[in-house]
Amino acid sequence: ISDCLNFGNPEKPEVMWQFQQAVGGIRDACIALATPVVSGNVSFYNETEGRNIPPTPTIAMVGLLDDVELHVTPWWKAEGDVIALLGQTREELGGSEYLAVVHGKTTGAPPWIDLETEKRLQYVVLAAVRDRLLRSAHDVAEGGLGVALVECSFGPPELGIRIAAEGGMRPDCWLFGESQSRILVSVRRKDMPRLRDLAAEHGVPLATLGEVRGRRIVIGDLIDVSVETCHDRSRGGLARLLPP
Asked: Residue 154 burial (CB < 10 Å; 0-12/13-18/19+)?
């Protein structure tokens, strides 16, 4: 990896603490995943009108793919494929885009993460790729599961989904919480038993969410919107934020 660490005024204790925590987190992750840091840079004193920018550590990463035929893309491939989630969703909204965008709050503890859990998850996904089980794979990151599900519909081809809503959790936490160590995948129905066995063998939770179907995003009785509408909103987001 290479890192680019952007922070505010390090003479302020809270900013130096943010920087120290970011460096410590990168160190821990790289040790756990046996990934070297080959370069990087640090930028301090990033302020606007006396206000520090949010702490912004950025990671660039490259790796080797021995067989290009085994690459996996994030979008759905065919109607009827099963959509599944590897990893565990928790009721946590701290530090999420949902809190910032919908409620205007930058607050709360960041999502919990255990690097051994992350390592097992990555192993299962790579093993499933080698066994040609996965049709698609996409990390669950900013915006949570709801956003990841929609992003996977932005093909080619553009395909919709039918997902059963989670009944045992607050809908906003389930849809927009940013719990770590989760990857959204799709597989042919006949391959689900093999994927389930692989996940169970390595102690990685696996939940079947629904299937690829139609041209609408349908999530229980919570969301029903066309893929075209979502894609238009995504592509035109920056233009709507900027003044004419």
From this structure: middle
Beta strands in 109-205 (DSSP E): 134-139, 161-163, 183-187
Pair of tokens at residue 97: 């885009």
As given in the structure block, the two tokens for residue 24 are 């410590």
Q: Which two tokens stand for residue 122?
A: 């990555």
State the Cα–Cα distance between residues 88 and 70, nearest whole angstrom: 26
In 3D, which of 174, 177, 135 has the Cα closest to residue 157? 135
219 three-class SS: strand
Q: For 21, how many CA atoms within 13 A lie in the half-sphere containing its CB?
A: 10
Give the H or E element holding residue 42. Answer: strand 39-43
Q: How far apart are CA 20 and CA 142, in angstroms?
A: 23
**Three-state secondary structure call for residue 20:** helix
pTM of full prediction above 0.85: yes
Mean pLDDT, rounded, for 73-80: 97
pLDDT of residue 182: 98
Residue 221: partners with Cβ closer than 8 Å, 6 or more residues away: 165
What radius of gyration, in Å, describes the C-alpha atoms of the chain? 19
